[in-house]
Amino acid sequence: MFKPFSNSFYGWKILGGAVVCQFVSISVGQMVAGIFLESITKELNIPVWQFSATLAIANVTGAFIVLIIGPLIDRLGLRNVMLTGMVFCSVGLFGLSQLSSFIHFFIFQIITSSIGWILFGPAVVNSAIIKWFVARRGFALAIGSVGVPLAAIISPVVITPIVDTYGFRTGYMVLSIFVLIIITPIALIMIRQPEDIGLVPDGIPTDKQSTKTLAEIEKDNQQTYTRSQAIKTSSFWLLAIGYGLNAAALTTISLYAIPFATDIGYTRSLGAIALSISGIGNLSSKVLWGWGLQRFDARRLAGIALSTSATGVLLMILSNTTQEPIFLLIGFFMYGFGFGATIPVSEFLWSRYFGRRYIASIQSVGRPVTAILAVIGPIGAGVLYDISSSYIVAFCLVACVYLLGALSINISNNPPKLHNNA
Asked: What is the pTM of this model?
């Protein structure tokens, strides 16, 4: 009998490595940004939108770099890409700990993100999960993305007291050392696909594969699109736009969660707790989304998830009116619960639509589209705050953006099957 966590299948090591990489990358790239915002803007005497714009530019630049390396990942694997990202991320974070001017901040933020954590983040490691799992892909993607909620749960409550007590410079230094120690050994165990070491997807020996599993693998092989074929379909652009809008909303909330909480009268510690609760919501949803992906239309699950997050944002806004912390906490939980579907459902849809063979190349084209749309959220929210001295209007718009993203994803359709043997 096939044992899903048997040591004989190397794919479970790949999955474990993906969990750790996503924990580290999301911690460094998203979850701690809001913790440093107030300290950096005061130290450099810059407006909030300028801080947000720097992060956004770094992420867009990183997306274009992924566009270039996507085909290399499909052909050569992840190891060298991840090690390169680890080196630049550690150097960038060390540089941020020594900053003295806005130009300094801008340069080292670009290094940290664009050629740093993004090279060992979800955009890179999820391509390996897709290649290693077919029949159990929904389950594997859900488990693989557990690192994201763990980052939301752990990072704010660990980094916030460090920054508040010892300053932002110490906070960046701690993160630099953390990335160096954790990512190096993980990168060394990552292998591109099971066929590279004589295995097959899902780790089931050829003579023991069930008819259902064989049918799933054959179906995936038939749904093989090249990059040039994929970008000619409407579904490619609908997914890119839909998840771009989702990214705009997610990055806005994760960046301004703590500033929003303090702006409406709560403490930084409560804001950090609320952000961690979003991670609990995210983590608690993984089993549900993984179960659902094996049984229901992934597009409908995406619509439910984005609508759940939108409802959570509206509850956050309601907490300003009622001044009841419970609405803030429930709102962040619901935001996180919907957030929990982002990686497993989106990756499932990309692979279901276009197959696993060229998935890194195909997704790398969508990354810049998603990143450019995501820029609008944080920068727009920063500008609105600088104008109105409030995050309320920005958070209302975030709820609307979630719903537009859900619509875009739900009107996409599975492209026709192709037979590419290249």
From this structure: 0.75
